[in-house]
Structures are given as C-alpha cells and as structure tokens.
Prior knowledge:
This protein is α/β, with parallel strands linked by helices. It contains 14 helices and ten strands.
Amino acid sequence: MTRISTSVTGLLGIDLPIVQAGMSWASSSSALPVAVSNAGGLGVVAAGPMRLPDLARVLTEVAAGTPRPWAVNLPLYRAGVDEVIELVLRHRPPVLIASQGGPRRYLERFHGIGTRCLHVVAGVPHALKAAAAGVDGLVVVGAEAGGHPPPAMVTTSVLVRAVAAAVPSTPVIASGGIADGAGLAAVLALGAGAAQFGTRFLASTEASVHPAYKEAVVAAGVDGTRTVGHGLGVIRALDNDFTARMLALEESGAEEDSRRKAFQAATLRDAALHGEVAEGKLEAGQSAGLVDSVLPAADIVARIVREYRAARAGLPPIT
C-alpha cells in the first residue's frame, strides 16, 4: 500500500495523512469511516447527534469492518456527554477527536485504554492549553471550514502555520478549505502532519446524507457558502433560502429573538436526512467549489494521493 510518512501517520498508525472529518449525519454511520480507514486514511464516526444505542451499534460495525485505525469525534457540549464518554470507552476506539470543551475532561481515561487523543482548536491560545494538558495531537480549523468555523475567522493557511510554530512538538492536522492533493501538499508545507477533509467526503457515495445535499455540494462554487448565525453560534453553509433570510435579518439589525427563531427553524438534520436543500442548514466549506463529483470514498483517497504526487512533482527545483 502507498505510504506518506508524517508525524501524524506515525502517531496514529495510518498509511496516509488523510483524515475524514467527523460530520454529523454524514459519518454518523459506519460506511464512510470504514471505507476511509480501509483505504489508508483515518475514518471518523461523528457521535454528536447519535443516540446511545445507535452509537453503540455503529462503533461495533466499524470495529468489525476495518482492521485499521479509526476514530470517534465527540463534541463535549452535547447533551449526556458523560454517558457518551462511558460508552465510547467501552468500545476502545484507537483514536478520539474531541471538541468544544477542555481535554482534561476525558484525557486520562482514554489514555488509560491506549487511545490516541486529538483535540480540535481554533486559535493559538487554545492550542497551547491543549498541548500543555497532554493531548497527542491537534486538529486546527480555519475559517474556510464548513459547520462551525473559528470565531476569529482566521484562514487555515495562517492559523496552521501559527499553531505549528507555537507547538512544534505536537502533531497538527489542518482542516478547512482542503479538498484535493494540492491542498494536502500545501498544509504539509505549512507544518501540518495531515489534512482533514470534510466537504470532499460529504460528496462521497458512503456519506449518509440525502443525494440532494451531495448534489448541492457539487453544484456550489468557491463563493457559494455563507457564514450566518452571528452571535448565535456561527455556521458556514451553502447559500440557500435559509442563509439569504438570515443574512437579511443580520444586515437589517433585527432583534436577537427574531434572528434566533429563524436560525433555529432550520436544521442540519432536515438537510441531511430529508434533502431539504432550500430551508435546511446545508453545512459545507468553501472547498465545495473544488468538488466536482460524488465518488466512492476509496476513490477519493486514491485521487488525493495522485494529486499530491502531481503537486510535489510540479514544484520548481532550487537552482
């Protein structure tokens, strides 16, 4: 099997520095994580929206479906998180990716069973704190990312470089705006040890979202996303009737209550499960404009590797 050796592949025991983002609903099932891990990357189960019985079933399926390392993504703010942590511990995932909370809440218990622990950060101060707490690696999310971008809206290229310089002994995974092998080569040059791909794997055959959602990703341009929900929990989503309405409310200075009602009336669940592409929250990153087709996850991994080789070969030599 092809290998690209980096600090992250060595840490996690994977062949390729390709991490599939934990995406609510899209990877809240076993098919996508299993396919990515079997292709040499790191497949990630999104535990955020899952009920405990469903999560237990999916973790069992993933463990049975691949002999390779895989991960669970856990937002620490979700309801009943302590019960979720206990369930995940029983399934002994090779890797945990946690976000939206402090690492000390989980670190000792997962290290105790041999799990590698990665923490999602959106700035240098958070990276320094997480590294000092003893996490094994960091996922650094830039402004281009779909879902919840960093509050300061610093781009991936700047933020990854800043974090890599601030914590040089901690492996870094870059996330946000990366959809192909050229993007992988770019973030490795910035000091990351891997790239996390979200929107690219959202448009995969194994992603468990409605076909209309995937088609909307493929149809989007690089300027086809909007950030909305300012003051309410900003998200980046594909431009649709929902984002247009939110932008109009925000630009007109509407009261928070009106904005909150409009924001909460739309859901990611409706978009993902029911194909509500006009009024749902079609969370996706700016890299949607670089996605041109829905492909099997293994083909996406192979394509990223080919593009990475081409990007490296195309760099001018030093003379």
